[in-house]
Amino acid sequence: MHAGPTAFALSTAIDALIACALVAWAVRRRPRLPALIAGVALALALVGVKLSLMVGAGLDRPFGVAHVLWLDAVVAVPVAALLLALLGWRGGGWLLRGLVVVGLLLAPVGAYASFVEPQRLVVERAQVPLTPARDGSDTVRVAVLADIQFDQLGEHEREAVARVMEQRPDVILLPGDYIDGSPAERTRELPKLRALFAQLRAPGGVFAVQGDQETPEQARAIFAGSGIRLLENELATTRVGDRRITIAGIEKHYVSPDARAAISALEARAGARDVRILLAHRPDPVLRLPPRTRIDLVVAGHTHGGQLQLPFLGPLRTASGVPREVAAGGLHTLDGRRIYVSRGVGVERGQAPKLRLGAPPEVSLLELG
């Protein structure tokens, strides 16, 4: 099944018609509230049947299913709530009117999450204290640009790179997921991405790793001739002021023998004076480090902060094994293992709903000292 915009629009229209038909039926019944409850139950059952048929025809799980449900929540439900207001507001009680208000409010929430927050790029800052055992006293400014993940490069991506450079970082880290599109889109956008990344410069260097959206060969092609060093299960050393920094970058398959060997080399390297950073696409490698790890900081992306975070619940889905509050983004410490997870710049593409709510896109500046 090719679930493009037309298929999702048709699905939403069908569900809106189902919801409106059941609202029209329910408001003519007495007592009205039990009829509405029955109508909602029947509508959910019909939507479930339709979703099962769509999945059988090739709708992606979980992203395509999430897209259908998202559009139902922010389009079909408000349309049904508007009809309920027109037909039943005057004779309805406080519960019915409350349902109407909540249903109508989903429409502006959907508009904000779809068209405003995905473009509301912010600069997140975090202070990362270093143990006195490390050489030097200078503060190291590390910028993180994660999950730029576009199919057509535009002003949003250019702004992200410009925001990074405005911070005047000493080191720049790129935790993967660069172009996310069809083979034709990748071929078309590759020269633009190279030109954009060529603007990234830092005295201590710019380092990148492979993400989920690119093969090793595609990652090498992205950074060829850019001056950015792609770390493929290897260590790099640099100096910023009076600080010595060792960075290990690993492939997306963080449990592969080569990735584990690179992490072990970073962990076991002799000496206590250099600052050690593990750069990975996914945050999960932090769970494989010993509680008293020699690695000062893990830097990762991948989760997008869940893209959708609800009050008191946090992200509904993280695609990671780290605790939910860690996957939501920011600086965290797990049994002495310190990790920074960036919410990233872009959104999940393909059949996924292109939204952010409670998890605005970010570029990050970490001050180590």
TrEMBL record:
Boundaries of every Calcineurin-like phosphoesterase domain copy: 141-305
InterPro entries found in the cross-reference section: Calcineurin-like_PHP, Metallo-depent_PP-like, Metallophosphoesterase_sf
Matching Pfam families: Metallophos
The keyword Metal-binding belongs to this UniProt entry's keyword annotation: yes
Keyword entries, A-Z: Hydrolase, Membrane, Metal-binding, Transmembrane, Transmembrane helix
Domain of life (superkingdom): Bacteria
Transmembrane feature ranges: 6-26, 33-55, 67-87, 94-115
Gene3D superfamilies noted in UniProt: 3.60.21.10
PANTHER family: PHOSPHODIESTERASE YAEI (PTHR31302:SF31), TRANSMEMBRANE PROTEIN WITH METALLOPHOSPHOESTERASE DOMAIN-RELATED (PTHR31302)
Protein name (Swiss-Prot/TrEMBL): Metallophosphoesterase
Organism: Conexibacter stalactiti
Lineage, broadest ranks: Bacteria, Bacillati, Actinomycetota, Thermoleophilia, Solirubrobacterales
